[in-house]
Amino acid sequence: MNCYCGEDLAFRDCCGRYISGSQLAPTAEALMRSRYSAFKVGNADYLLASLHPSKRASESRESLEQSFANTQWCSLRILSRRNGQSGQTAGEVEFVAFYRSGEEIGQLHERSRFVCENNQWLYSDGDMLPALKLGRNDECWCGSGLKLKKCHPD
After folding, report:
1. What is the pLDDT of residues 105-114, one digit of tens each?
2. Is 5 domain-assigned?
3. Is 32 helix (H, G, I), strand (E, B) or coil?
4. Domain count of the chain?
């Protein structure tokens, strides 16, 4: 099975190694992908630990756990990245993450900012962006790999 973040690696060889703490994410994109996977598997500890310390007071374990119970994350698409490589101190990743909440299908489209402090990438903040309009020939939001018109034609 591929990693939840969409990479063609097993979870344990991709995001799992960062979430477990055995390795630090080497880039802003790797951290972004691993944070998505942490939401998918419900790992509040990793989400709080990978959040910049200046932002931790505004995020609570309770609100994260409530979101885990109410949201099923379906797929992640990285749309662009800027900087955020090894040896750099800042980076941005634009992504869209598709989810289900009850019967609702939604998307989180964000341009996230990351900083690297003491060789550790941390999520700083992000700007919410307008939802993407998917065409019938786009890959389905659910992560099946099928075109939208074949998977969810409605």
Report:
1. 899 999 999 9
2. no
3. helix
4. 1
3-state SS track over 41-89: HCCHHHHHHCECHHHHHHCCHHHHHHHHHHCEEEEEEEEEEEECCCCCC
CATH of the domain at 34: 3.10.450.50
**136 neighbors 151 (Cβ within 8 angstroms):** no
Q: Is residue 2 part of a domain?
A: no
In angstroms, rounded to a whole number, what is the distance separating the alpha carbons of residues 21 and 118?
15
Range of the domain at 33: 11-151
Q: Per the domain annotation, does 3 fall within a domain? A: no
Q: Full-prediction pTM beyond 0.85? A: yes
Tens digits of residue pLDDT in 18-61: 999 999 999 999 999 999 999 999 999 999 999 999 887 767 88
In the sheet that holds 120-128, the strands lie side by side as: 72-83, 90-101, 104-117, 120-128
Residue 6 included in any domain: no
**CB-CB contact of 93 with 109 (8 Å):** no
In the DSSP assignment, the letter for residue 145 is S
